[in-house]
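Folded chain entry
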Amino acid sequence: MKYAHLNRRSAIAAGGMALFSTPGLFAEELLATPRLTEGPFFPDRLPLDQDNDLIIVNDNTTPAVGEITHLTGRILTKSGSEVQNATVEIWQCDANAVYLHSRDSDRKKQQQDQNFQGYGKFETASDGGYRFRTIKPVPYPGRPAPHIHIKVSQNGHEVLTTQLMIRGHEGNARDGVFRRAGDVAERERILGDFKPLPDSKIGELACHFDIVLGRTPADR
């Protein structure tokens, strides 16, 4: 994969996101990541390049515009077990706030960053880990909170659709989707820290975001 090759130049050193547990009797059980809307712009024409490196399309050498971000994490059950062979999909708008969707990109062709893949996927290994190289999300008209859409599937079944937002961003409080995520504790579970990557000479960022599934296909 391109991501693995490019990543030899800089190791990801992301801090782990705190996992939240249920108080009281079931203190060992992790709290599920809230479900959030898929939104209107899941790509209606998936790109030919669907790997986990969204800033380089195919064999192009020009990277996407934006703050390069190494997004990593694990897919976990509520009991804390790692979920193997889960497919993690992400999609987001480019740095010019254009999605890879005909309803958006067809009317904003002059603005669209043709070097941004817009969508990627990754299959977890035995440790439940996933990784992507993308850009730090930016606000979108109507959505003041920058966000990355995430969908997790297993054995051909979608088990969770959610969104990752930036902890501390001023737009969160004005964002309807963020407010509908639940109470303060639930909203905390969709926030991530985008921190400078140590020793990066080009200003890369890292975000570690663990996802806890409320159910798996076995629970159906």
